């Protein structure tokens, strides 16, 4: 049965009772035909669809169903990183891709702030001693005046810099091009020169999208060049860090501690050597996921959909070649 | 043998090789006779002494040796809290007491900031799961917009308020007198009304000195009135919190988590029920002790001693009746 309304297909995770759909879709029903599907039905759902909302934001199902995308004009992804869903035909197509830029900036920056302070105050060491019933006074470090290097100059990296600066941390960044006048970072070094500059930092924070340039960027050479006892924080993508080299740098120095929210394989495999280490704080890809995040992601899509239905261009448009939303 | 120089006695902890003295005392030797003693020799050391420097800042040896204090005019304590060393005869005497106000403000405020963020992001839960090899995504909380109640309006409480405000936490305080126009806190409630107001706060932070008014202040009534899941942080003195009521409030609610750096008995006894709990982060009275703290404490005394030797009044004078340095 033909519909005169534009078609919005929503790819949902398979939930307990069918598709686990975002809140508020009903508010679009007078202006669009809404199809909620799970991954195995995506091809059917894409036929004739104008818009695809990837509510199941880790899915890579789109490339498998791409042959059915006969009318698609726009894909919105409920995530900041779009690396998992980009593929050559999509990149070459006219389909616009937008993402969830903005939703995760502050929560992730707070997670990084917490990691920086928790490391300085050795909360992991205190929790370990508490478990074992050990009372042991130690000297800890001051946060103010310590130095952080933020790898990645996107919105999340900028929020991290703002929050760390607010508590007296000195910040510089690494990005595609070196410059000295960045409004948020001041000094930005070129990522290709990372090994030459990383030794200045007490805290090395990966906030870069996963692209060909950032895959493996924090490898053996960079990890060997960090300051003695330095702290690596990864809230970007696991594939940007060479995990074997990371373990080696923890075991044999110079790295002192790692706080990791993302991994090359997720969930982290049971035999991964990162489990159980006292010098690692790991969490389950959740640094940006504060109470209300799903509602915020749904609302952000609905806002963007209303713009699109009004004939306006959607916001947060990804540069598909680069793999992220360029700074405007 | 009589000396024409003023006598400065330094009470030191017993170290591996005799007394464990502060750095830089030699710089006073042309202007004062310096005696370094340990607790058992304090009475001998106090005879004829003009100045006592309590480098062993947890010592309560002064009251035992007080009978020998025949010339004493000034005691400097290398600590922020002076509760351990105040006693009736000292309070009634003309002896001036000064403390280490200023040295610990920022390090302790950073510890509190770390505790606030670590709780919001459930780092303790992540470390526990990591130890057990459990990958489990959870939703965490946003720090910005949460509410902190700082009990104690001294220099440390003010630094805590400043730092928490810098990351978007809403702060109010409890102090001796209620007011609405405090420059750092805005609203200050009267500590006697704590139970009526504590329920507004996500984070309840004790930064009060130990005085008759604050001993047991955070007892069963207050702990029963905190918000569901609230977080208690104690960096003041252990005796301000009723530890049995604290355990009860953790076990049966409403308290969600406690970060504790101070305890009624220190070291915390091996059979204390706080050990081993997943909903407590405890540390060994070290929240202010960052690398360089001993040097900073020694330098602060030397600066004050030079003022005193120059005939100027020393700074950081404790109101002995109140038990802390009043705000100027």
UniProtKB/TrEMBL annotation, chains A, B:
Keywords assigned: NAD, Oxidoreductase
NADP as UniProt keyword: no
Database matches in CDD domains: 2-Hacid_dh_1
Source organism, top-level taxon: Bacteria
InterPro entries named among the record's database cross-references: D-isomer_2_OHA_DH_cat_dom, D-isomer_DH_NAD-bd, NAD(P)-bd_dom_sf
Domain D-isomer specific 2-hydroxyacid dehydrogenase catalytic: 37-318
Family annotation (Gene3D superfamilies): NAD(P)-binding Rossmann-like Domain
D-isomer specific 2-hydroxyacid dehydrogenase NAD-binding domain location: 114-287
Coiled coil: none
Family that this chain belongs to: Belongs to the D-isomer specific 2-hydroxyacid dehydrogenase family.
PANTHER family: 2-HACID_DH_C DOMAIN-CONTAINING PROTEIN, D-ISOMER SPECIFIC 2-HYDROXYACID DEHYDROGENASE NAD-BINDING DOMAIN-CONTAINING PROTEIN
Protein name (database record): D-2-hydroxyacid dehydrogenase
Organism: Nesterenkonia halobia
């Amino acid at each position: 049965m033909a519909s005169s309304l534009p078609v919005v297909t929503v790819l949902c995770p398979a939930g307990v009772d069918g598709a686990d759909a975002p809140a508020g879709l009903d508010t679009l029903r007078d202006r669009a035909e809404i199809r909620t599907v799970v991954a195995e039905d995506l091809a059917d759902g894409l036929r004739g669809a104008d818009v695809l909302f990837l509510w199941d934001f880790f899915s890579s199902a789109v490339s498998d169903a791409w042959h059915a995308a006969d009318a698609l004009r726009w894909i919105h992804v409920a995530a900041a990183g779009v690396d998992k869903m980009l593929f050559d035909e999509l990149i070459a197509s006219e389909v616009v891709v937008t993402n969830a830029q903005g939703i995760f900036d502050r929560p992730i920056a707070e997670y990084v702030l917490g990691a920086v302070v928790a490391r300085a105050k050795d909360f992991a060491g205190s929790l370990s001693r508490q478990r074992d019933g050990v009372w042991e006074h130690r000297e800890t470090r001051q946060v103010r005046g310590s130095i952080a290097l933020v790898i990645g100059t996107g919105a999340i990296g900028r929020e991290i810099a703002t929050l760390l600066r607010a508590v007296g941390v000195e910040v510089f960044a690494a990005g595609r091009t070196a410059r000295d006048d960045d409004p948020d970072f001041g000094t930005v070094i070129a990522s290709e020169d990372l090994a030459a500059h990383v030794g200045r930092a007490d805290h090395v924070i990966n906030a870069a999208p996963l692209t060909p340039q950032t895959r493996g960027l924090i490898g053996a050479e960079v990890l060997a060049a960090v300051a003695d006892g330095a702290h690596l924080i990864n809230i970007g993508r696991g594939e940007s860090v060479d995990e074997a080299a990371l373990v080696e740098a923890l075991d044999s120095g110079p790295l002192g501690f790692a706080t990791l929210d993302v991994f090359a394989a997720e969930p982290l495999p049971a035999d991964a050597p990162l489990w159980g280490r006292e010098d690692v704080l790991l969490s389950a890809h959740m640094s940006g996921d504060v109470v209300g995040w799903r509602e915020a992601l749904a609302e952000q899509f609905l806002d963007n959909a209303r713009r699109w239905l009004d004939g306006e261009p959607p916001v947060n448009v990804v540069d598909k070649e680069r793999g992220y939303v360029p700074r405007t």
